[in-house]
Amino acid sequence: MYMKCGDADSARQLFDKLPVKNVVSWNSAISGLVQQGQFKEALDFFHDMQRIGLKPESVTLVAVLNACNGFIGNALVDIYAKCGNVEQALGVFQGMKCRDVFSYTAMIFGFAINGESKRALDIFADMPTKPDEVIFVGVLSACSHAGMVDVGRKHFEDMSGVYNLEPRKEHYGCMVYLLGRAGLISEADEFIAYMPIEPDLFVWGALLGVCSVRGKVELVESVMKKLVAIEPVRDGAYVLMSNIYSSANRWKVELKLS
């Protein structure tokens, strides 16, 4: 009953409390996990079943096979998407009988990196399961590519407000990039200033990247000092700095970094 309602955690607790677990109990647990898209957990259950010496039935093996197919499907979606063939990836995704959070992650990232931001957000909206932190990186990236500032803000706020997920540095970096790409450089800088966690290379690098595009030389110099303080040897940042000075016709400027 718990599995059918999507409450896998309660189902697991009930299963653990059973005084006697027969093959029917194991079959129900494994099949339920597969139906909920929890392929790894389903295979873990199957391994536990084997450890205690309980012989699987045909029903068990069908469920295990479906779990394996889920893993293969996820891998195909990821490969096709990274190769730029999003339609083929979507075809595999739609053909999967059971999808887990990794299926949705692969498809959302696939659409996002291939410039299909709206389709990425549509996939996210159709998710029947709770998203995790990784999925939100894909969602915020999709918003960045499409310039959807308000939508991105809402998803960022929903992480903690709706899904009880604590934003990580990757999410803050995505928000900085989102704001910067939209031309909101000052807001991006202010966003970093009020971060509840210490910004890292990813966050400062995001600001450096958008500042270079917008030609914000003074702010770039400030960001460079932050980056060098964190990681002194950062050749890519110095090359970018040189290119920015070149574009701004400031070849004679000497950046003194302490």
The percent of residues in helical segments reads over 70%
Content-based structural category: mainly alpha
Uncertain ranges: 1-6, 251-258
pLDDT averaged over residues: 82
Largest sheet: none
Number of beta strands: 0
Radius of gyration: 24 Å
Q: Rough shape?
A: elongated
Strand content: under 5%
From N to C, what is the helix and strand string? HHHHHHHHHHHHHH
Terminal residue distance: 63 Å
What's the tally of helices?
A: 14
Give a description of the structure.
By secondary structure, the chain is an all-alpha fold. It is built from 14 helices and no strands. α5 (86-95) packs antiparallel against α6, α8 (133-146) runs parallel beside α10 (169-181) and α12 packs parallel to α14 (235-247). The longest helix is centred in the first third of the chain and has 25 residues, at 58-82.
Question: What descriptive keywords fit this protein?
Answer:
258 residues; mainly alpha; 0% strand; disordered N terminus
Describe this structure in a few short sentences.
The protein has 258 residues and is an all-alpha fold. The protein is 71% helix and 0% strand.
Layout of strands and helices, then pairs:
Elements: H1 8-17, H2 23-35, H3 39-51, H4 58-82, H5 86-95, H6 101-113, H7 117-125, H8 133-146, H9 149-161, H10 169-181, H11 185-193, H12 201-214, H13 217-230, H14 235-247
Helix pairs in contact: 1-2, 2-3, 2-4, 3-4, 4-5, 4-6, 5-6, 6-7, 6-8, 7-8, 8-9, 8-10, 9-10, 10-11, 10-12, 11-12, 12-13, 12-14, 13-14
